[in-house]
């Protein structure tokens, strides 16, 4: 801190202190009275001042000890008082002059602005390891009351506020209690064991640095008093002591300008200058400007200049070292980023080459088959594959650029007609152009999915879904067939069957193709019911039968309604009536169709009753009443159609058999059970979604504890579905879905999902969850349906329900409505969705 900075700090404190001497100069007629009253007050408060001096000294001790503790290391600042009283301190001329010059320059800067420093005492300064002196900004120093001195000497003579003992400004300290002093006795006791106890030194420092006129109560807060304190400081810099008694005796003699003989012999010039500053008459002492211009401080000493230059050089070296350290750390971090980027570029380049090789093989194998309608196999072979690749690259860029620039379908068709290429090539380029904008729109998320999939692929040795994909392509079940299905078969044969492709490419390519296969959700049919005006139309659950010919709905209207799919999809009717309708005594929360016995439907309701219904007879076959509270979920096992499970607000999962009257097992959890589902291929594995934010997977052969726990949601897990035998999807009211990989080993808590899907809104309601062929459907509290694919975290498609007034037919925006239930129709691209107003739609991905 230089002199100007210190002066500005002192000036600010003096203006804040509001010293009466500076604000109200005394007149000459009242001068004697003022002095008399001040002396009287001083005498009356002598006893009080002694007690307050002790407390102030304790404050000073605490501050300096704290500074000493923090500066225990060699590189920290240290109090000047502690530095002066270090045992065995050697006096270095250049070092002492350097310290004194800094303090004198600071005082001179303050005097130049009309400010009396008052606190020119060692305890108010700290030193850096390079002997740079700084003023301590603390209450202990500021309480002595630095004041602004008026330009006239009369103001000084009138008794302007001076340094004084700290009790004069008690309010600056805050409360000083005996309790606080007692708390420090241990620390003070440790100080007294040192050669120079700080407590005693600080108690005496007030008197040592008080000028004679201040001790007599004649002049306070004068420039001359600051000069006197500089003289005492100069004496302490050049005089060392071996014991406390010697120091106390010598400092007492200094009040009478008696200097020790060893100082006079060793440092005669310094002793002479010190006596000049300590002159008892204020008018005889030099001004601070004279001190700074004196030959004593300006003697031609090359060593001093060298010392100052060396100190500055050392400081500059330290700054350069810090900068160098920062730059080295920065370089190291950026190098790590560059290494990772270089590695990424290397394996991306390898992947590009591999995909290009596979593409060449696909072009050779697929073109004859795809061109049977317009080109012969012979004409295809007339053009080398390399020529096709090279010629199509520039055109692909052209088509993509035109598409991104907003070229319409008609103009795009015109460009296609002008391009001299085969029909197959044109179809490929048009398909790429139509999907390019969707790909680039989500480029960042696709990039993250690519790296994530590749990392997983590098760790895995086989794809668990390859068997299922082969089964699907063989023709069993309901497979989704798109325009690129025949190409997919070739990909499966060449990539997976041939084994020439890295493990990561297949799942990523499959996800990317499915992500780009569909562009929107189209309304295929609306279910028109006759009770649209009924306010109790919230649909809580829907499900398809074994053959996907019928579907059933249930909700707060206490009815299970069964509809025929073909009648809804293929016949245009004003009102659709259910083929079967069954009434319940309570609101229904969930239904599940038996996957083997086509006529059986299980239901759960708000009173905790689980029932099995015979659809053909429209009646209940069995009632199970063991739950104590509302049951949220019920599910039939696909592997064992006689086994049934239910879970509810009583925190239990009940296991049932349709051949037995009571439950065959009970799982007790710590929180409400919101959803359950059997593993599709096993009757012994069950997933449970709980209100404690977790998913529990149980092996029903051991009901005491879950075989694994999936913990990653931050709110209630409202729904859980098996995507396949080794993956589970969970929905939560934290606005997210999570995909989990079930570990092969049992037990343990897993907190790292494979994927987190976000885009929909779900804070408080059950919005439904359904999975099919890697696609995940869910509702939203924005009255929308969202479709995700397991490979990517962002939505693939979405559809917003329009709120239409049943009387006027006008659309309006009702923020209270939400999609309450979704259900895929087997493994097809058709989805059944319902919202809170009872509006049910068949949606199809196109």
Automatic annotation (TrEMBL):
<keyword id="KW-0833">Ubl conjugation pathway</keyword>
<dbReference type="GO" id="GO:0042802">
    <property type="term" value="F:identical protein binding"/>
</dbReference>
<feature type="compositionally biased region" description="Low complexity">
    <location>
        <begin position="6"/>
        <end position="30"/>
    </location>
</feature>
<dbReference type="GO" id="GO:0004672">
    <property type="term" value="F:protein kinase activity"/>
</dbReference>
<dbReference type="InterPro" id="IPR019775">
    <property type="entry name" value="WD40_repeat_CS"/>
</dbReference>
<feature type="compositionally biased region" description="Polar residues">
    <location>
        <begin position="467"/>
        <end position="479"/>
    </location>
</feature>
<keyword id="KW-0607">Phytochrome signaling pathway</keyword>
<dbReference type="InterPro" id="IPR044630">
    <property type="entry name" value="SPA1/2/3/4"/>
</dbReference>
<dbReference type="InterPro" id="IPR036322">
    <property type="entry name" value="WD40_repeat_dom_sf"/>
</dbReference>
<feature type="region of interest" description="Disordered">
    <location>
        <begin position="146"/>
        <end position="191"/>
    </location>
</feature>
<dbReference type="InterPro" id="IPR015943">
    <property type="entry name" value="WD40/YVTN_repeat-like_dom_sf"/>
</dbReference>
<dbReference type="InterPro" id="IPR001680">
    <property type="entry name" value="WD40_rpt"/>
</dbReference>
<keyword id="KW-0539">Nucleus</keyword>
<feature type="region of interest" description="Disordered">
    <location>
        <begin position="454"/>
        <end position="487"/>
    </location>
</feature>
<dbReference type="GO" id="GO:0009585">
    <property type="term" value="P:red, far-red light phototransduction"/>
</dbReference>
<keyword id="KW-0677">Repeat</keyword>
<dbReference type="InterPro" id="IPR000719">
    <property type="entry name" value="Prot_kinase_dom"/>
</dbReference>
<dbReference type="GO" id="GO:0009640">
    <property type="term" value="P:photomorphogenesis"/>
</dbReference>
<feature type="domain" description="Protein kinase">
    <location>
        <begin position="1"/>
        <end position="297"/>
    </location>
</feature>
<dbReference type="GO" id="GO:0005524">
    <property type="term" value="F:ATP binding"/>
</dbReference>
<feature type="region of interest" description="Disordered">
    <location>
        <begin position="1"/>
        <end position="35"/>
    </location>
</feature>
<feature type="repeat" description="WD">
    <location>
        <begin position="710"/>
        <end position="742"/>
    </location>
</feature>
<protein>
    <recommendedName>
        <fullName>Protein kinase domain-containing protein</fullName>
    </recommendedName>
</protein>
<dbReference type="Pfam" id="PF00400">
    <property type="entry name" value="WD40"/>
</dbReference>
<dbReference type="GO" id="GO:0005634">
    <property type="term" value="C:nucleus"/>
</dbReference>
<keyword id="KW-0808">Transferase</keyword>
<keyword id="KW-0175">Coiled coil</keyword>
<dbReference type="InterPro" id="IPR020472">
    <property type="entry name" value="WD40_PAC1"/>
</dbReference>
<feature type="compositionally biased region" description="Basic and acidic residues">
    <location>
        <begin position="180"/>
        <end position="191"/>
    </location>
</feature>
<keyword id="KW-0853">WD repeat</keyword>
<dbReference type="InterPro" id="IPR011009">
    <property type="entry name" value="Kinase-like_dom_sf"/>
</dbReference>
<feature type="repeat" description="WD">
    <location>
        <begin position="624"/>
        <end position="666"/>
    </location>
</feature>
């Amino acid at each position: 801190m230089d002199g100007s900075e210190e002066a500005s700090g002192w000036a600010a404190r003096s203006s804040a202190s509001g010293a009466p001497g500076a604000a109200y100069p005394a007149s000459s007629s009242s001068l004697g009275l003022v002095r008399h009253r001040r002396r009287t007050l001083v005498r009356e408060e002598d006893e009080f001042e002694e007690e307050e001096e002790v407390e102030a000294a304790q404050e000073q001790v605490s501050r300096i000890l704290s500074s000493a503790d923090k500066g225990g290391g060699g590189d920290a600042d240290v109090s000047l008082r502690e530095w002066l009283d270090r045992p065995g301190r050697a006096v270095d001329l250049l070092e002492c002059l350097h310290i004194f010059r800094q303090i004198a320059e600071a005082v001179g800067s303050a005097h130049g602005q009309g400010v009396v420093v008052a606190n020119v005492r060692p305890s108010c300064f700290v030193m850096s390891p390079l002997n740079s002196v700084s003023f301590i900004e603390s209450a202990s120093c500021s309480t002595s009351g630095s004041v602004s001195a008026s330009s006239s000497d009369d103001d000084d003579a009138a008794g302007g506020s001076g340094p004084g003992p700290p009790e004069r400004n008690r309010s600056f300290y805050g409360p000083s209690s005996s309790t606080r002093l007692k708390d420090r006795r241990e620390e003070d006791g440790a100080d007294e064991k040192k050669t120079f106890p700080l407590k005693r030194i600080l108690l005496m420092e007030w008197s040592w640095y008080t000028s004679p006129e201040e001790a007599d109560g004649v002049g306070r807060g004068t420039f001359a008093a600051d000069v006197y304190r500089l003289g005492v400081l100069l004496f302490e810099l050049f005089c060392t002591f071996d014991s406390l008694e010697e120091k106390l005796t010598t400092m007492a003699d200094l009040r009478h300008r008696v200097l020790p003989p060893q100082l006079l012999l060793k440092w005669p010039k310094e002793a002479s200058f010190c006596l000049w500053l300590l002159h008892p008459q204020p008018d005889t002492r030099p001004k601070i400007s004279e001190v700074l211009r004196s030959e004593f401080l300006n003697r031609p000493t090359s060593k001093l200049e060298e010392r100052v230059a060396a100190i500055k050089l050392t400081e500059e070296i330290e700054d350069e070292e810090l900068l160098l350290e920062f730059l080295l750390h920065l370089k190291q971090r950026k190098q790590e980023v560059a290494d990772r980027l270089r590695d990424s570029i290397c394996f991306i380049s390898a992947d590009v080459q591999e995909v290009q090789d596979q593409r060449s093989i696909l072009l050779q194998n697929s073109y004859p088959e795809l061109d049977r309608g317009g080109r012969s196999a012979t004409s295809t072979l007339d053009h080398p594959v390399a020529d096709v690749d090279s010629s199509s690259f520039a055109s692909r860029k052209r088509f993509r650029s035109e598409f991104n620039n907003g070229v319409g379908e008609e103009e795009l068709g015109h460009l296609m007609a002008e391009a001299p290429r085969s029909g197959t090539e044109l179809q490929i380029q048009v398909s790429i152009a139509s999907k390019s904008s969707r790909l680039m729109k989500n480029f960042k998320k696709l990039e993250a999915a690519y790296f994530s999939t590749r990392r997983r692929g590098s760790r895995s040795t086989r794809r668990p879904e390859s068997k299922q994909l082969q089964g699907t392509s063989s023709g069993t079940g309901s497979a989704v067939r798109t325009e690129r299905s025949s190409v997919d078969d070739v990909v499966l044969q060449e990539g997976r069957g041939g084994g020439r492709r890295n493990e990561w490419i297949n799942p990523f390519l499959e996800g990317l193709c499915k992500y780009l296969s569909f562009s929107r959700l189209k309304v295929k049919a609306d279910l028109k019911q006759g009770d649209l005006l009924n306010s109790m139309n919230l649909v809580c659950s829907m499900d398809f039968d074994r053959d996907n010919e019928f579907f059933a709905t249930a909700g707060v209207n206490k009815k299970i309604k069964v509809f025929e799919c073909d009648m809804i999809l293929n016949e245009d009717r004003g009102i659709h009536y259910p083929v079967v309708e069954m009434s319940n005594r309570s609101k229904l929360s969930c239904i599940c169709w038996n996957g083997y016995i086509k006529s059986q439907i299980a239901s759960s309701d708000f009173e905790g009753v689980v029932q099995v219904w015979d659809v053909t007879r429209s009646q209940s076959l069995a009632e199970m009443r063991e739950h104590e509270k509302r049951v949220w979920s019920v599910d039939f096992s696909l592997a064992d159609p006689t086994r049934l499970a239910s879970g509810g607000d009583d925190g239990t999962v009940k296991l049932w058999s349709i051949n037995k009257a009571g439950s065959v097992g009970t799982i007790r959890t710590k929180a409400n059970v919101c959803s359950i589902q059997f593993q599709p291929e096993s009757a012994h594995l069950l997933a449970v979604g709980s209100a404690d934010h977790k998913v529990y997977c149980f092996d029903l052969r051991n009901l005491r504890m879950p075989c694994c726990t999936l913990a990653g949601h931050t709110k209630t897990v409202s729904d859980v579905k098996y995507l396949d035998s080794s993956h589970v999807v969970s929905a939560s009211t934290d606005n997210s879905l999570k995909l989990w990989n079930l570990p092969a080993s049992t037990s343990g808590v897993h907190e790292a999902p494979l994927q987190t899907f976000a885009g929909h809104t779900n804070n408080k309601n059950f919005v439904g969850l359904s999975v099919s062929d890697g696609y995940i459907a869910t509702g939203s509290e924005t009255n929308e349906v969202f479709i995700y694919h397991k490979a990517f975290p962002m939505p693939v498609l979405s559809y917003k329900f329009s709120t239409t007034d049943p009387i006027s037919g006008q659309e309006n925006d009702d923020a209270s409505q939400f999609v309450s239930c979704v259900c895929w129709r087997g493994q097809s691209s058709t989805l059944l969705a319902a919202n809170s107003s009872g509006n049910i739609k068949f949606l199809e991905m196109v």
